[in-house]
Each structure stands twice: as structure tokens, then as C-alpha cells.
Amino acid sequence: MAPEDDCISDDADPNIxxxxxxxxxxxxxxxxxxxxxxxxVAPSDPQFNFSVGTKxxxxxxxxxxAEFLEHLKALQHFGQTxxxxxxxxxxxxxxxxxxxxxxxxxNAEISNYDNSKFTAHMKTAFSSLTFALxxxxxxxxxxxxxxxxxxxxxxxxxxxxxxxxxxxxxxNGEYPKVxxxxxxxxxxxxxxxxxxxxDAILSSVKDPVHREALKKIPTSCANLFADxxxxxVIDKAGxxxxxxxxxxxxxxxxxPQNNPGSSGKQPTSNMNILKPFQRNRNExxxxxxxxxxxxxxxxxxxxxxxxxxxxxxTYKGRRTGSPSSHWERRGxxxxxx
Length: 337
What we know:
This is RND multidrug efflux transporter. It comes from Operophtera brumata (Winter moth). By secondary structure, this protein is an all-alpha fold. The chain has a domain of 106 residues. The chain is built from twelve helices and no strands. Helix 4 packs antiparallel against helix 6 and helix 5 packs across helix 6. The radius of gyration is 50 Å and the shape is extended.
């Protein structure tokens, strides 16, 4: 028997040596991860996000969508040479009705004071547009009512017959015609207004050749004249000052006043200028003017007035004052030999 085996008995606990190295379990609750940048968050944990941001100032005129811009170019013919060929007179005759939907006539008592021909023209345009809009809204109501009555009495309603019915109403009926007339009226009046503005600007062009060259430039969606073509014509002619006449200010435009703090001379007020005239009017109103007032005897002017302080009898019949005519004054100083 080995000496080591004598020291171990059969009744010994085999785990007696393991009690020295037994570790108690950690009873502290587990810590939760915080929502910090870079921290890992469990997918099942709820998250709270507090987003912040700033807004920038939006433009005063929003940007036109590409779809609407293409429609405008097709309707108004912008960028093309026939932009001024959109007419409205023939269409407007259908929507001018009296009374109410035409230009209001001035009263008979004030007819001579009405000189606003352009304003009357625009009033007729808006009147015809109003009539067309009312007619369009009436057609919409009638078409919708007609479609509902059709659907109510239809035994079988499906996609095919609904599409056929709507296509007949909004494609071949009266509604699309009124809508097309509205676009014709609006675009025609707008083209005429643009033409009037262009003609007013081109009236200041010096050379008729330059005027005709600028008149051929079409209108764009942003400018009265297409920018690139207009710049090319102006640069070739020598600049704006070489093409257009200078625009002078009106005579009634007041001159700029000097700043009182920058100069020692104070600006003269209009009331100070008018004071002598105001004083003369006050004298006439109060009847104390030297010529017209009750004390006119103290005034001696042309005509030989007497002095009030002198004896009238002494000067009675005596010629006083300057000669009454130019020829007498001329003979008064004639040299005598």
C-alpha cells in the first residue's frame, strides 16, 4: 500500500476540497444599455427619438412643375414665332351677353369723362371669362346628375361601361368645348397684353432696323424677350444705350434736397417762398393795402397823388408826378441848344 492511500479514508467527502473555490452567483440586477451614440440597442427594446431641425425661407413665387410648364408652352406658344397668333375675338362672341356680361357703359351724365378704353376692353374680357366659367360649372352639374341617373337604372355596372359613359361625357360633350374656349380666351388675352407691353418698350428704340430685329424675338416663359436672343441683338448693336433712347425724368419731379447735416445752408421751405404772396392776399382781404385801403392818401405813385400832411390848396392845380406819356418824358430830357 502506498503511503498516500493511508491518509484517505472511505468516509471522506469527495467535494471537501471544492468548498474553498465555490463562487456565489451574482444577485445584482442586470444594467440596461443607455441610448447613447454608438451604444448597441437590443431590437426588442423600445426607442424614443426626439428629432430637431430648422426650416429655410420658402421662395415668394413657388417653382413651376415641369408638367405645368410644358402645358403652358403648348397653350401659349412661348418660345415660338407664332406666340402672338393666339386669338380670342371669335370665341369671345359666344360668351358676351347683356346685361351683366359685357363692359358696363358709363352713365349718360358722365359719358364725356370716360377715356379709359383699355380698361373697358379688359372689363369685357373678364365678363366673358365669368360667363364661360358659369357655363362650365353648369355643364359639370348636369353631367354628374346624368351619370348618376344612368348608374341607378343600369342593370349591370362594370368598369367597361362606366369608362365608356365618362368618356362620352367629358370628351364628346359640351364640357370639353367650354373648357377649350376658356383656355383660348385666357391665353389670347394674355398674348395681347404681352404684345402691348412689348410695343410700348420698343417705341423707345432709335433705329427702325433694331426695332424690327427685337420684334422678331419671341416671348419666353420668364421674359418679354427670349434672353439669349435679346442679349445677342443688344450686344451686336452696341449696348442698351446705343439702341434705346434715354429715359428723362419729368419736369415736375422734385429735385433731391440737401442733407441739413452735411451742409451749412438749410433748405428753403416752400412756405417761406409763399410768405410775400400770402401777405399781399391778407392785406387785400383786410382792406389795408396802400393802394386800395382807406389810407391810400398817404401813397404817392404815378398819377400825382397828394400827400396827406400837406396843404391840398397849395398843390391844387399843380402838375405833380411823372409825365403821363412816354413822349412827354422823352421831351422833358431833350437837349436844347
